[in-house]
């Protein structure tokens, strides 16, 4: 048994980011062709495209503002022309900002999180679900966070945006499930990425004390969960919020 995404086309938004780049490589290594979305880092997107070509997969880069329905629809048309219809959508892009208390957080930070978590999810569904419905197969995988279960001080804007995303994904799972389209979320903990490896910041003893597995997860472990949910191995899983956090958060029944 192995994950086989041969002949599937996957879109990863924010594919040049710390987690996105590993998701793109992983899906390509599972056989998928990859639409590499980026916002501003065209050089990194081109490098990632070349890497995927090196795996023997098709890939192309696409720039779009994921808070704009018009730009997402235009990107969908471009992907379809170059790579074919998108079978797998991974909503990974999110706006970055400085975290602080509710009393000090700028109102525009809440708006940016709403736009990049909630509205991105809505726009991606509007753009890509119709082709999935027509072919009776599709995957939406949203990248959420363990923070939505922690609600720690300074997390309010991020938690608000990702909780809104959670609501959209749960409803979408019920609305399009009859077409054999699954809609799930992967919720990383505080994950080791290339940035940590470069800065030698992989270990955080204070954080790891609260994690049952006593370590931080890796970007590859997040990508593995995404690949699983994108595959036929997860064909009867939908509406799930899957923490990949070493047990740091545990949804209860």
UniProtKB/TrEMBL annotation:
Source superkingdom: Bacteria
Enzyme class: oxidoreductase
Pfam families the UniProt entry points to: adh_short_C2
Gene3D superfamilies the record matches: NAD(P)-binding Rossmann-like Domain
Gene Ontology molecular function: oxidoreductase activity
Listed EC numbers: 1.1.1.-
Keywords tagged on the record: Oxidoreductase
The keyword Hydrolase is annotated on this UniProt entry: no
PANTHER family on file: OXIDOREDUCTASE, SHORT-CHAIN DEHYDROGENASE/REDUCTASE FAMILY (AFU_ORTHOLOGUE AFUA_5G02870), SHORT-CHAIN DEHYDROGENASE_REDUCTASE FAMILY PROTEIN
Family, per entry: Belongs to the short-chain dehydrogenases/reductases (SDR) family.
Protein's recorded name: SDR family NAD(P)-dependent oxidoreductase
UniProt organism field: Cohnella suwonensis
Lineage: Bacteria, Bacillati, Bacillota, Bacilli, Bacillales
């Amino acid at each position: 048994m192995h994950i086989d995404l041969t002949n599937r086309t996957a879109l990863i938004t924010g594919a040049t980011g710390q987690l996105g780049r590993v998701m793109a490589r992983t899906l390509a290594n599972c056989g998928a062709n990859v639409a590499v979305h980026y916002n501003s880092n065209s050089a990194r997107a081109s490098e990632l495209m070349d890497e995927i070509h090196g795996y023997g997969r098709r890939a192309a880069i696409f720039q779009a503002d994921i808070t704009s329905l018009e730009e997402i629809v235009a990107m969908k048309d471009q992907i379809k022309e170059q790579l074919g219809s998108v079978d797998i959508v991974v909503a990974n892009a999110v706006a970055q900002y400085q975290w602080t208390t509710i009393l000090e957080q700028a109102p525009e930070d809440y708006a940016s999180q709403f736009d990049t978590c909630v509205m991105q999810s809505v726009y991606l569904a509007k753009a890509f679900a119709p082709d999935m419905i027509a072919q009776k197969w599709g995957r939406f995988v949203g990248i959420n966070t363990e923070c939505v279960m922690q609600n720690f001080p300074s997390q309010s804007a991020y938690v608000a945006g990702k909780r809104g995303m959670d609501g959209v994904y749960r409803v979408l799972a019920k609305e399009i499930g009859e077409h054999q389209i699954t809609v799930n979320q992967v919720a990383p903990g505080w994950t080791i990425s290339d940035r940590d490896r470069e800065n030698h910041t992989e270990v955080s003893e204070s954080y790891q004390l609260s994690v049952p597995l006593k370590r931080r997860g890796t970007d590859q472990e997040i990508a593995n969960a995404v690949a699983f949910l994108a595959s036929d191995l997860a064909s009867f899983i939908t509406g799930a919020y899957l923490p990949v956090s070493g047990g740091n958060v545990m949804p209860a029944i």
